[in-house]
Amino acid sequence: MENKLAIQEDLIKPGTKARPGEHHLKKWIVIHETDNFKHTAGAKSHATFIKNLAEQNSKYLSWHYTVDDKDIIRHIPDNEIAWHAGDGRKSNGGNMSGIGIEICVNSDSNFRVAVRNAAKLVALLMKKHNMTVNQIKQHNFFSGKNCPSSIRKYGFWDTFLQMCSNEFKYLK
Ligand SMILES: [Zn+2]
Fold this sequence. Notes:
Layout: E1 7-9, E2 28-33, H1 43-56, E3 65-67, E4 72-74, H2 94-97, E5 98-103, H3 111-129, E6 136-138, H4 139-143, H5 149-153, H6 157-171
Parallel strand pairs: 1-4, 2-5, 2-6, 3-5
Antiparallel strand pairs: 3-4
């Protein structure tokens, strides 16, 4: 199986509410789902959305990566904070210390493949930043939000962590 994972970089505007550029400790990888089931609401369309949002400089909303069944797009460098975990500026929290990954659930993306791509991305981040599987958390862990909702609904979280571990072993 093809293991090479191409991360596309499409960074949002720095010095904005969405991307203030404060550096952080990478303590967590925070897993989300977009909950946008609309046709075409994949990684590319989320990249456009978040870029526009940063340009408008209207909201404290951002995350680091969006993943669907085809694309993995980086919006913010790993070492900067982003606003995705719903826990404000809490010290060591998801926003202040987490790398946020949104998994797309759009109807024209194969969700299983998107989840597998997310696991591959997580494994790469674990290797790059010397992190363990214990540092992979649901958005829910930080704010109580029902996110990632499908993974939670179908009881798929432990399997997802196992997938991340397997991909990590495969990288070594
Ligand atoms: Zn979330």
